[in-house]
């Protein structure tokens, strides 16, 4: 069934308060819910029945104003409870029985390592009780939890704890009250045997907030980083958005079995353990950064999502796009802004562009969906964040802040739309964003065809930019969008040239960087006072989520790599050069020459200690296979893999001395620190190590073995392990893998890394080995992280093995997807993604991919989640 934005109507009934009583037992849970309901004066249908959503519920009782309803007075369909005749205002009581211990979908109330926890976004609350489960129904919640005191000493829900006490039979209760009206998707509950780590935060206005992280006792030592990140995020939101926290207590709970990263339940954020727990010994630098950004993301939702929420799920990007923009700005402020921008742009260009070009392409504000869980996508999150970033660029920081202040003030306590957000930005700034709104409505990645010419006589440089937006499923003939295009021009010695757009401007007052605003299908810009042809620095800091097509020469790219004052574009020039070199080798004869300028550029980078080392570390990463595949038409995966490998080997061979020097220069002993400098050093030395092992260098091997043994932190230990796993030193590889597992087998987050490093390796992650990992005693089909770390990583990162020309990788994925669909459809629908891109690949691959998809389509009892993805990608 397809749900359409155009069919939105306001709810017929509103709920003012929700009174919940949870009786938690080993064999199930009984939920008593009492709602105060009233007719919505704004509803056109004044005689509408009360309609409540429900999923897999056993209904024990329905009562209206305290009187039990007889069966003929209500109707229970598979998905709804409908009561036809009701007064304008009434109290509705519903009692349901559910079995959290058997809930493998991990939606609603379920059990994870013995503890009760919830995930209600988007439509999980209906798996707990019958309720109008839509975000525009906002109510105040009071929640009483009753459970066995020994097994569940900790009982948590949203808001403030207002009452607690003992009950008979060794049971106890706690009652929570949340003063802020909220939609049901923000409801949260946790009950279990947990320890707490405490801290406090004093808000700008002087209120003391109690901060708590709840974890299983064995993880008590892994909360410091999350707590510190939380306090930084709280301060940052006050300073940058004027947003203070609003309850007296803020809680985070770590849960091992979780479908997503984390969830922003009001006052009670629930996290996937891997997104919150960290220690020097068990988490890599990347994990530390990820945790900081996710903790901030969920915290920021308290305003962008909770205080102001979404009217309906088509507006999901209202909270997600804005919140990702906020967390990404926060991370940029905490570390290197250039590196953060590179990471965001890489994700977008590799994965979101691929989504935009695939069968599930959808606008930032989709017009229709079948299963909303399938729309928690890179488009909604990351492209949505880019759209907000472009508003920030167009308005400038001051007006943007005025706009966000107005948005929060105007809509506090409301459920609103992306259009309301843009309207607030317009009203506060006086800018017309009507054309800009197309970013929310049109799917697909705009392509900018850039060409230029120079008139030496007149000193005029002309830049022509044409935009084109490709067709996507259900959308053709798109209108030009409003695109901020940041530009700089470089002179022959690398100097930044003044941008003089008309004859009157004089060089003195002219800027050296400018944001051109593209609104038409084609623009030509003229720049004056330029006796020689400049090198353009296009789309600086990735000022819009678009593809730029310009015929760069390799000379220009090498020039930009060392001269562009925009760090992002320096990196980008390096990537484009490497892409060009690798692409020219795809299908070329064996022994073809590899561009010497690439080697020299990398040599210069390795020796440059004046540049920001974090940027150097990024610049040394070759474009990923996934990105090269995304860029290609009908990619031949094996050929791309081979070409990239050749370039890597050639670079490593030519730069062996420099790599060894770089390794040592960045290894000088010192205390482990989590500063940008020391993170950059670890990154550089581990990159050097991995390159040396690509060419089976014995010095490299010895360094790796030694580093693996001596490492005092997970980044270095994992760096050495990864290098060995991806080398031909089979004996060292197995010894290290075995040693690592023995040491860390009791730590699930580390075991997940151990699975991933193998599943992503073309040496250690061929299908027989992957199957062996699935049989491993630490593998668990009920745990999404384990599934992702083996099956997800294999299909998403081990591309040569996944795209084995014999189709075995595809068949493998289809088998796992079918198997998972019965227990956890959300995970199954996500895991199938790589197969859905079958049309993109050379026919030899594509037809095998399609066959695997068809096999999934024909599975009996296909879930709604998987149905939507599979049918849309088969075009049926
Ligand atoms: N709102 C959460 C976040 O982005 C994600 C929850 C997604 N849940 C889901 N079932 N798709 O922070
Ligand atoms: Zn979010």
From TrEMBL:
Catalytic reactions on record: Release of an N-terminal amino acid, Xaa-|-Yaa- from a peptide, amide or arylamide. Xaa is preferably Ala, but may be most amino acids including Pro (slow action). When a terminal hydrophobic residue is followed by a prolyl residue, the two may be released as an intact Xaa-Pro dipeptide
Pfam families (alphabetical): DUF3458, DUF3458_C, Peptidase_M1, Peptidase_M1_N
E.C. number(s) listed in UniProt: 3.4.11.2
Residues of the Aminopeptidase N-like N-terminal domain: 19-186
Peptidase M1 membrane alanine aminopeptidase domain ranges (all copies): 226-436
Molecular functions per Gene Ontology: alanyl aminopeptidase activity; metallopeptidase activity; zinc ion binding
Peptidase M1 alanyl aminopeptidase C-terminal domain sequence ranges: 555-874
Keywords: Aminopeptidase, Hydrolase, Metal-binding, Metalloprotease, Protease, Zinc
Function as written in the Swiss-Prot or TrEMBL entry: Aminopeptidase N is involved in the degradation of intracellular peptides generated by protein breakdown during normal growth as well as in response to nutrient starvation.
Chain ranges of the Peptidase M1 alanyl aminopeptidase Ig-like fold domain: 444-550
Family per similarity comment: Belongs to the peptidase M1 family.
SUPFAM superfamilies: Leukotriene A4 hydrolase N-terminal domain (SSF63737), Metalloproteases ('zincins'), catalytic domain (SSF55486)
Cofactor(s) the record lists: Zn(2+)
Protein name (Swiss-Prot/TrEMBL): Aminopeptidase N
GO biological process: proteolysis
């Amino acid at each position: 069934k397809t749900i359409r934005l155009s069919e939105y109507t306001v709810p017929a009934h509103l709920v003012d308060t929700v009174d919940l009583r949870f009786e938690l037992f080993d064999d199930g849970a009984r939920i008593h819910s009492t709602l105060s309901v009233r007719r919505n004066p704004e509803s056109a249908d004044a005689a509408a029945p009360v309609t409540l959503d429900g999923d897999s519920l056993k209904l024990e009782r329905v009562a209206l104003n305290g009187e039990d309803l007889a069966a003929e007075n209500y109707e229970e369909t598979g998905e709804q409870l409908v009561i036809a005749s009701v007064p304008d205002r009434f109290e509705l009581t519903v009692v349901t029985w559910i079995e959290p211990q058997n809930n493998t979908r991990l939606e609603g109330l379920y059990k994870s390592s013995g503890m009760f926890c919830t995930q209600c976004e988007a439509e999980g609350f209906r798996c707990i009780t019958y309720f109008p489960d839509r975000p525009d129904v906002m109510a105040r919640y009071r929640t009483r939890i009753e459970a066995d005191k020994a097994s569940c000493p900790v009982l948590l829900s949203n808001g403030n704890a207002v009452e607690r006490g003992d009950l008979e039979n060794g049971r106890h209760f706690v009652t929570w009250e949340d003063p802020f009206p909220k939609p049901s998707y923000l409801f949260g509950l946790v009950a279990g045997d947990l320890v707490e780590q405490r801290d406090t935060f004093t808000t700008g206005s002087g209120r003391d907030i109690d901060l708590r992280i709840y974890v299983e006792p064995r993880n008590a030592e892994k909360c410091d980083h999350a707590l510190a990140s939380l306090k930084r995020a709280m301060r940052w939101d006050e300073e940058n958005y004027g947003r203070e926290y609003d309850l007296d207590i803020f809680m985070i709970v770590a849960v091992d079995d979780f479908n997503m990263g984390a969830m922003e339940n009001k006052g009670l954020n629930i996290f996937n353990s891997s997104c919150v727990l960290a220690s020097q010994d068990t988490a890599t630098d990347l994990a530390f950064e990820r945790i900081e950004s996710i903790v901030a993301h969920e915290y920021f939702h308290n305003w962008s999502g909770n205080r102001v929420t979404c009217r309906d799920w088509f507006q999901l990007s209202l909270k997600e796009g804005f919140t990702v923009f906020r967390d990404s700005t926060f991370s940029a402020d905490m570390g290197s802004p250039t590196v953060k921008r590179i990471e965001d742009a890489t994700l977008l260009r590799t994965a979101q562009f691929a989504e935009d070009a695939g069968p599930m392409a959808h606008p930032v504000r989709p017009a229709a969906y079948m299963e909303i869980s399938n729309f928690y996508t890179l488009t909604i999150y990351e492209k949505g964040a880019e759209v907000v970033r472009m508003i920030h660029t167009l308005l400038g920081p001051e007006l943007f802040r005025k706009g966000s202040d107005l948005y929060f003030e105007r809509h506090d306590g409301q459920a609103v739309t992306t259009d309301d957000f843009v309207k607030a930005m317009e009203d506060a700034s006086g800018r017309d964003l009507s054309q800009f709104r197309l970013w929310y409505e049109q799917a697909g990645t705009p392509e900018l065809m850039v060409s230029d010419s120079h008139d030496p006589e007149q000193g005029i440089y002309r830049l022509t930019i044409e935009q084109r937006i490709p067709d996507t499923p259900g959308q053709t003939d798109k209108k030009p969008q409003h695109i901020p295009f940041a530009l700089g021009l470089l002179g022959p010695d690398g100097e930044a040239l003044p941008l003089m757009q008309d004859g009157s401007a004089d060089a003195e007052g002219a800027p050296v960087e400018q944001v051109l605003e593209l609104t038409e299908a084609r623009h030509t810009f003229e720049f004056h006072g330029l006796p020689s042809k400049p090198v353009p620095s296009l789309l600086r800091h990735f000022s819009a989520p678009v593809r730029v097509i310009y015929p760069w020469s390799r000379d220009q790219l090498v020039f930009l790599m060392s001269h562009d004052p925009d760090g992002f574009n320096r990196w980008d020039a390096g990537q484009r050069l490497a892409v060009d070199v690798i692409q020219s080798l795809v299908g070329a004869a064996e022994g073809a020459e590899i561009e010497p300028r690439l080697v020299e550029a990398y040599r210069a980078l390795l020796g440059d200690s004046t540049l920001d080392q974090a940027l150097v570390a990024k610049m040394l990463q070759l474009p990923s296979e996934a990105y090269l595949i995304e860029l290609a038409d009908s990619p031949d995966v094996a050929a791309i893999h081979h070409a990239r490998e050749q370039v890597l080997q050639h670079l490593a061979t030519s730069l062996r001395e420099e790599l060894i020097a770089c390794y040592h220069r960045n290894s000088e002993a010192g205390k482990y620190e989590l500063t940008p400098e020391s993170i950059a050093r670890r990154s550089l030395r581990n990159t050097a190590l991995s390159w040396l092992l690509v060419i089976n260098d014995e010095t490299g091997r010895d360094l790796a073995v030694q580093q693996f043994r001596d490492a005092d932190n997970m980044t270095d230990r994992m760096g050495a392990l990864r290098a060995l796993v991806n080398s031909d030193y089979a004996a060292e590889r197995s010894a290290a893998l075995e040693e690592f597992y023995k040491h860390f087998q009791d730590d699930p987050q580390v075991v997940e890394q151990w699975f991933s490093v193998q599943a992503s390796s073309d040496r250690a992650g061929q299908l027989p080995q992957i199957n062996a990992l699935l049989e491993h005693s630490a593998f668990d089909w009920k745990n999404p992280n384990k599934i992702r770390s083996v099956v997800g990583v294999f299909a998403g990162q081990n591309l040569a093995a996944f795209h084995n020309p014999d189709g075995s990788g595809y068949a493998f994925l289809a088998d796992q997807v079918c198997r998972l669909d019965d227990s956890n459809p959300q995970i199954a629908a996500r895991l199938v993604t790589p197969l859905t891109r079958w049309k993109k690949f050379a026919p030899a691959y594509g037809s095998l991919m399609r066959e695997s998809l068809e096999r999934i389509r024909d599975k009996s009892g296909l879930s709604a989640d998987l149905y939507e993805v599979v049918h849309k990608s088969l075009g049926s």
